[in-house]
Amino acid sequence: MRLLNYSKKEEGNKHLTYTERLMIERWYNKERKSKAEIARLTNKSERTIRREIRRGETIILTTLLEKKKVYSADKSQIKYEEYKKDKGPELKISDIELVSKIEREIIENKKSPEVVAYELRNEGTNICGRTIRNAIKNGKIFKKIKRGQIIYNKSGMRVSLKEKRVGRHSPIEKSIENRPKEVDTREVYGDWEGDLVVGKQGTKTALFTLTERKTREEIIMKIPNRKTENIAKCLDRLERKYGKEFYSKFRTITFDNGSEFLGYEEIEKAKYRKGKRTTIYYAHPYRSGERGSNENNNRMIRRWIPKGIDMKNITNEFIKHIEDWINNYPRAMFGYKSTNMILSN
Questions:
Q1: Where are the domains of the chain?
Q2: CB of 240 closer than 8 Å to CB of 249
Q3: Alpha-carbon span 135 to 282, nearest angstrom
């Protein structure tokens, strides 16, 4: 017997009501109806029902204390209401000033939709980053923004399995597996990740980047070529700049297996005191995620210096501008505080 009645006009409503969810709970859990049959009874597609059951799936204990998967109408309804709350209001084409402001913040100031949404909410405009991203993807409201201009456009990310210039050997004792466990927790300041941001193919000049794991503090330095001696010279400059503070500020640095980083003795050796100045470790080959903080900051640099640019033409003043921009960038993980705000506390 069909319990839910719909006209053809009502079939267009794709969203399930709470009453419908309760019926699905009864049919699926007690009457053991198939997803296809439930789809027929609700005038929904089978795909919609499958997705709905996944959303409300939960585990209960039977009277025999055995775990059992069931569908919960309440759990699914809560998730649906949270989604509606996060989605926020739709942007209207008539909001010309709002659209212009969002375009300016994303294109000129290189901000992510999430940061723009956070700042707009502080100004009294209730909107979320997902709404902005969806509107950009739709292409009808934001005419000036291209999808490739969005920072952290994760839907377009591709994981590359090719690590640049992988060295033949990284010493076992220098493996990330031997790095102090406290580095993983990010509780202590002074553990860094490093890499190079390279320029146009065939050119030698590159950017040497360092990212502190706890605060995401960024340091960017220009080098004439990708040789170990230039990496060491960059640390010489930092050691001179920070003096005694250097040795606590740079406790460890984790690199990938690029050949330019494998001369760890030269990189570790102190310039202005005897012995070591820091301790170098190496991530596993093809595991860029083990240096995820540095990889993310390097992507932020690419917002200002796209691939195919000769780094030789990039001025030190512009590099400093990018470094300051990153260190002053509001980050969701820090409650939209910037690195500099955290360091100043």
A1: 10-86, 91-154, 172-344
A2: no
A3: 41
CATH superfamily of 172-344: Ribonuclease H-like superfamily/Ribonuclease H (3.30.420.10)
Per-residue pLDDT of the chain (345 residues; tens, 9 = 90+): 444 544 434 444 567 888 889 899 999 988 999 999 999 999 999 999 999 999 889 888 767 777 888 898 888 888 887 776 655 555 554 578 888 899 999 999 999 999 998 998 888 888 888 888 888 887 778 888 876 667 665 544 444 434 444 445 678 889 999 999 999 999 999 999 999 999 999 999 999 999 999 999 999 999 999 999 999 999 999 999 999 999 999 999 999 988 899 899 999 999 999 999 999 999 988 888 899 999 999 999 999 999 999 999 999 999 999 999 999 999 999 999 999 999 998
Q: Map tokens 């999430």 to a residue.
A: 114
Contact assessment for residue 159 and residue 143, using Cβ atoms and an 8 Å cutoff: no
Q: Which residues contact 129 (CB under 8 A, 6 or more apart)?
A: 112, 113, 114, 115, 116, 117, 118
The Cα–Cα gap between 297 and 310 comes to: 19
* Residue 56 CB-density burial (10 A; 0-12 exposed, 13-18 middle, 19+ buried): buried
At what angle are helices 73-87 and 46-55 packed, to 10 degrees?
A: 100
Core vs surface per residue 216-236: b (16+ CB within 10 A) or e? bbbbbbbbeebebebbbbbbe
